[in-house]
Design goal:
Length: about 170
């Protein structure tokens, strides 16, 4: 009897909507892993820095400075939101590490082979040094696993919440 009274008095906050959750997962994943990639650049694990995203569109030397780095990280975070929604739309029902792993590889190949001509300072895929390729591939893979696990978990969690009776 006391437990029922306590349960009725406790008000739990409503969970975020699924699209909002996917948005935040994508934004956080993109910003976080881009910052890690920037540190990889600072420690010479890769030749590529986040500022490469500004090359096709921005003029001036500011894009190579701290402001260019900050804006690049935010822009990549916003592109990541789109990637998160693509994953949600196509792969949310898949469980485990492999769907995210493969998704990360696909995004890596898309950026480094298909979109390579958009970035003048990026060498062609086969001319990039091994450290850059390995570091970048690993970053994209852990990004894909992060997005995949997070979205699959939230999708499964939403199914469970939808099945629970409302009291």
């Amino acid at each position: 009897m006391v437990n029922e009274t306590i349960e009725k008095e406790i008000k739990f906050p409503k969970a975020m909507s699924t699209p909002m959750t996917v948005f935040w997962i994508g934004l956080f994943g993109g910003v976080f892993w881009t910052i890690i990639g920037y540190f990889a650049y600072l420690f010479s694990f890769t030749e590529l820095r986040p500022n490469i995203i500004l090359e096709p569109w921005a003029l001036g030397d500011w894009k190579r400075d701290w402001l260019g780095t900050a804006i690049s990280i935010i822009i990549i975070g916003l592109f990541s939101v789109g990637a998160a929604f693509v994953y949600y739309g196509m792969l949310k029902k898949l469980k485990g590490i492999w769907p995210g792993f493969i998704y990360g590889i696909v995004i890596f190949l898309l950026v480094f082979i298909v979109l390579n001509p958009l970035f003048p300072s990026m060498d062609p895929f086969l001319k990039l040094d091994r450290d850059t390729l390995v570091t970048s591939a690993c970053l994209y893979i852990v990004y894909g696993v992060f997005i995949g696990y997070s979205i699959s978990y939230e999708s499964q969690n939403q199914k469970v919440q939808d099945k629970e009776p409302v009291s």
